[in-house]
Amino acid sequence: MTAPSTAPSPTAQKPLAFELSREREAQLLAGARKSVRVTTGKIWALRVLIIALWLGSWEATATYLIDPFFYSKPSLIWDRLVQWFSTGTQFGSVWENLGFTVLEAVLGFVIGTVAGIVLGVLLGRSRFLAEVFSPFIKAANAVPRIVLAALFILWFGFDISSKVATVVVLVFFAVFFNAFTGAREVDGNVVNNARILGASKAKILTSIVLPSATTWILSSLHTAFGFALIGAIVGEYAGAKKGMGMLIANAQGTFDAAGIYAGMIIVTIVALLAEMLITTAENKLLKWRPSEAKTQAQGI
Amino acid sequence: MPSTYPAAHERHEPLPGADSGQRTAPLIELRAATKRFPKTGGGIHTAIQNVNLNVAPGEFVAVVGPTGCGKSTTLSLISGLQPASDGETYVRGELVTGIPKRVGYMFQSDATLPWQTVLDNVASGPRYQGMGRSEARDKARVWVDRVGLAKFEKYYPHQLSGGMRKRVSLAQTLVNEPEIMLMDEPFSALDVQTRQLMQTELLRLWSGTGAAIVFVTHDLEEAIALADRVVVMTASPATIKAEFTVTLPRPRDVEEVRLTPEFLAIYRQVWNSLREEVDQARAAASLAG
């Protein structure tokens, strides 16, 4: 560096020449908003087009080329849905059946999640216990647990308890492994810091380990609720007096392809609603996280 | 050649609080402390060996040594986070077996809780010790204010700069009114300007507390600018090689003091001692790498 350049430069005091005028700023922002609107519009238009093409081609092929008795078609499925919701099914109102399925899924989900978190955190914090139990847990996870639904019917009968049990064994492992990893991955530095600041073992668990594992646990809940619905439906499919799985099984027994699709659609909508609820809860609990979505990397 | 403290060897029974009058009883005392770790590939790594160190109440001691020599291990022995393999550590004349009372520790990397605001992070110490939420927050607010983050008390750590996060850690440590502050290269991750600013802040905040500080760093300038005494450690396995008293007057301006001839004289003296160790550590590293 040469000596003269270190002298205070006279230009440093000049007012900023690049400041935007108010109108120009408003103009730029309006332009940016408009381009966002246009993109969103295009995305939705394409989505609608894809659905129209898919349903249209299905309707057309099932009308002219293939047998709708086996493959059904959108208009028949729609009729079945309308019938279920207006006059009800052979087994009572569709709402009642749906209620049973959701009740089983939610009960099993809650029990499985709590058990998964408790055991996951416990083993995640104790290397010794983790070492002892790891072969058993791996083996239990490898078992095709969905088959247990049949066994649970023998044990608990056709009531909701057998379905809840099926849901619990499916949900438990999904949550357990994430809670375990979350509890194990806690930053040792943070724990040491808390110990120095005077935290007891119990406080470390509640104020450090559980909150740090929360990110892991919450991300497992998305798949876990999907498993919960699958568990409830399979349980009902294996044998039940009420429920969506039973309606689907009955539709299969009566060669009612449209009924199978109608059942699938209803359960799919429930799963999507649950997914939205979990995402909302997640965003609320994890509001401290840096949000990637909000960053405007593109620039104007 | 390791410095010996006659007083430390004469006194066998710890005398908590009893002052001989001649010299103050050491607040921290390491006696022939050794720490070994199992190596990942088998074998044993000796981090520190036969370390004797006394720190008086209110004293600012900087520990310098080549990178990775085991300086931090010394702090973890004093803090009680790790037990010594051989030798003893005493704090206030009592053998350290758990975490001693009124000890603060600032770690090299961030240890703030990402899901808590600045205020709640600072309040966590009093909360852990059983204080009610609002009372702890009031106490924390005073320290958040003192470290200059009053406007940021509702922010989350990820919304702050590296220097501001260090201020949070500093407030978190100071709110517990520690008598001993252990600092493990706390400012090493900061850029030069922020680092000097934080050094100034540390001296300002420390001056009122009467706490003793053990400050580990590999930056000799930082050590001399801040401390009353600089302890030089050898290359691994680390032991104390020499100690130097820093006679620069307080209050110090950490940026200006570096330019004084007194500072340079001390620097030259300490560096002569430290250089061999740094060279040795580099040679060992290049052999290993």
Automatic annotation (TrEMBL), chain B:
Keyword Nucleotide-binding: yes
Keyword Transcription regulation applies: no
Segments of this protein annotated with the region Disordered: 1-23
Any Pfam family: ABC_tran
PROSITE patterns in UniProt: ABC_TRANSPORTER_1 (PS00211), ABC_TRANSPORTER_2 (PS50893)
A GO molecular function held by the record: ATP hydrolysis activity
Name this protein carries in UniProt: ABC transporter ATP-binding protein
Organism: Arthrobacter terrae
